[in-house]
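Bug #2210: token dump truncated for DUF5655 domain-containing protein?
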Amino acid sequence: MFQWDKSCSYDEQQKRRFHTTVRSRLKKLAAELDLPSGSYDLRSNRAGVAVSGEVTLHHACAYIQVGQFGLSSGHGILIRTCKGRKDYSGGPNHFVALAMLDDIPALAAAVRAITGVSRRDSNASQFRAA
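Reproduced locally. Full output below:
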């Protein structure tokens, strides 16, 4: 299991592991949500040496960003709705624990509850053109 509460600040090795692990988990999340290939972006911003940076999964109606911005509270996954992949402000912010990256089905359930992305969405093709 990854040590989510170990700070990336001034630790290049930890930051590299953090970004690699988060990208891998977000790919698993996309699969769990049945997001069609090409219907989402997966971006990584390593930022400066004093912070973790963030990794973002941006879908037509869901914006999920992972970073250590809530390390003291244990929260580090931002989930919100959006209107396409050019919408960077989206709906209200919701935060869940970084440790949810260790339970992808539970994280997917939270994403579905917050954004309405459905696992069996019969209109999944609509998300391809975002």
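Output looks complete on our side. The chain has one domain: 12-117. Marking as cannot-reproduce; reopen if the truncation happens again.
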